[in-house]
Structures are given as C-alpha cells and as structure tokens.
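Sanity check record (used in CI):
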Amino acid sequence: MSYKTDFGRVLGLGSAKQGTGHFWSQRVTAVALIPILIFAIWPLDAAVGLSYEEVRAIYASPFNAIMLILLIAVGFRHMQLGLQVVIEDYVSNPAVRTAALLANTMFCALFGLTGVFAVAKIAFAG
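Expected output for Succinate dehydrogenase hydrophobic membrane anchor subunit:
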C-alpha cells in the first residue's frame, strides 16, 4: 500500500528525507542563540564607543572572543536555514530557486567567515 498520489508515482517524486533534520537544525540553532547572545552582548555593549586598543583588550579574553565568534557562526547558520525555507516555499521557478539557494549559502558563508576573521584578528592582534 502506497500513500503517494498517482501523479507523484508517475513523476517519481517523494520525500527527500531531509525535512526533519532541517527542522531540528533550525530549532537547535534558535535555542543555542539564546545563551550565546546573553554572554556575547555584555562585552559587545561595553565595547561601544571605546578606542581600538580598549576593544582589543576586551576581546583579548578568550571567553569574550569565543562567544562573539559563536554568535556570528550560529547566527549566520540560523539565518541561512530560515532563508532556505522561505526561498523553497515562495520561489517557483526552478532556475531562480537554485540560484537563490546558492546565493543564500554563499552570502551566509562569506559574511560569517568575514565576521569570524574580524573577531579573530582583533583578539590576536598585538
């Protein structure tokens, strides 16, 4: 007994078996962002308006640098997962959808790595 429609059987389309993993990845990153954000906001708030040397002193602490790097990495991954769902749901043209998904992945990876590099450069400058 199959639950596929006749049209689905003809096209050979079925479940991609990735929906649950994507769902859980989105939820785990959302929950992980809560404590990361709490611990990353305090030094970030303290650094506003300070000179470069004072900011560098704050982020010379491994805990502060790691929390900010985690915030950037997990935040961009969460954004990439959310935008992927929006693109898959609302872009109907397959070529445009593929291009948008590729651009989404590249954008999030590029800017995420740029942010991580910037924090690492500040933390290890010296």
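Helices lie at 6-11, 19-47, 52-59, 62-90, 94-124. If this sentence no longer matches the regenerated tokens, the check is flagged for review.
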